[in-house]
Amino acid sequence: MKIIHVADLHLEGGYKKVSGDKNKLLRDEGLQLFADLISFANKEKVDVILICGDLFDKLSVRKSTLKFVVDQIKSVPNIRFFYCLGNHDNKKLFEDDLPQNLYIFPVGFSKIDLGDVTIGGNSVIKYEEQNFVDSINFDKDKINIFMLHAFLSGAHDNDCLSFDVKDLKNKNIDYLALGHIHKRQNGRIDDRGEWVYSGNFGDYLFGDFPKGFVLIEIVNKKIIWRRIDLICKRKFFEFYVDLSDCQSFLDLKNKIKNQVLSASCDDFVRLYLTGEYEEGFEKKVDYIFSEFNDKFFYFDIVDESKIKIDVEKLKKETLSLKAEFIKLVYDSDLPEMDKQKIVKVGISALLNEEVEL
To answer: Of 27, 90, 255, 352, which has the fewest beta carbons less than 10 angstroms from its beta carbon?
Structure first.
């Protein structure tokens, strides 16, 4: 038996900082990824697709999008779909047209017997004390896969089911198929079973979140799984440019140009400005943005750079507001570390620099 474990498709999500035609394009690309998943499953003769929550990005979905998803599911009647709701999902969306090969888990544990394999699930949105764990009931002689959209933590989360994975020990679970966390993670439940986050499938976001899903094969009553990467049109790049050795704005501009060479016009690019620069150095952040914004699908700048403050030099100045401020701070009884922090914040403010407290 072959099974796909996928989660966090966030169809219709786009990217919140992109609007207009660009965002529509992202939404359409998300639908195409879903179609690609169905095509892959059909080609690989997959028997079951597990959708572990956040199929959609919002509780309300355009009719055209819902019809597209329903038609895709109906197009492969040989594949059974199991779907547990995530915190972004709305079961009522399928009330008028539920495909025969799609099963949506209710609130409360239920399971479907597929011969040697049992698929269990629970569309719990919030933690329901011990009732959630007590309701899990798997046959120890079966291969048991349990679907959840959840956050594995002892702390409760108001937006999603949240529990400690140790609560699932000795529940005869072989594979806990999880959604909600977009990073690829996995670990042990107990000697018998393991938990796996399939990771991000359709959301657009910066960070270490490659898109993909998990392909599970059951061979000789054993579960073997591997991650499958999606081929995506757009990549997310984060570039860090240190201003410390830049003597002029031209140096900075050339440094940025060399850094971003690996990104294309289809990509999302975030530029971090870091390091310390001399007083009087012009960063021209607005100019940098205008220069590079049109070169990529999305571009933004995070300025983490700081002005270099030579306290000893400033102490020697006369008739200077900065010098008087430093003298006032260093004549105080504050700890040395606090004096240094206060001076840096104060001087930055006097120079009209952005101040972070």
So the answer is: 352
Q: How many domains does the chain have?
A: 2
Mark which of 212, 229, 246 sits at the end of a domain: 229
pTM of the shown model: 0.85
Return d(Cα 296, Cα 313) in angstroms, integer: 43
Residue range of the domain that includes 269: 236-350
pLDDT tens for 18-44 read 888 999 999 999 999 999 999 999 999
The stretches of the chain forming alpha helices (DSSP H) are: 20-43, 63-74, 129-134, 249-259, 285-292, 311-315, 321-330, 336-350
The answer to whether residues 22 and 85 belong to one domain is yes
Enumerate the β-bridge partners of residue 6: 51
Same-domain pairing of 214 and 245: no
The residue among 198, 222, 179 whose CA lies nearest residue 1 is 222
CA 56/CA 83 separation, integer angstroms: 12
Phi, psi of 147 (to 5 degrees): -105, 135
Query: 225 and 153 in one domain?
Result: yes
In tens, the pLDDT along 296-348 reads 999 999 999 887 776 666 666 666 777 777 778 777 888 876 776 777 677 66
Q: Considering 229, 245, 269, which residue would you say is the last residue of a domain?
A: 229
Q: Are residues 216 and 342 in the same domain?
A: no
Tokens 């690609």 found at: 36
- 168 in the same domain as 248: no
Residue 311 exposed, middle or buried by CB count within 10 Å (0-12, 13-18, 19+): middle
* Listed residue (167, 142, 173, 143) closest to 154, CA to CA: 167
Q: E strands of 200-336, at which residues?
A: 212-219, 222-229, 236-242, 268-274, 276-277, 298-303, 306-307
Contact present, 7 and 52 (Cβ < 8 Å): yes
Strands 306-307 and 276-277: parallel
Whose CA is closest to 195, among 159, 157, 230, 151?
Answer: 151
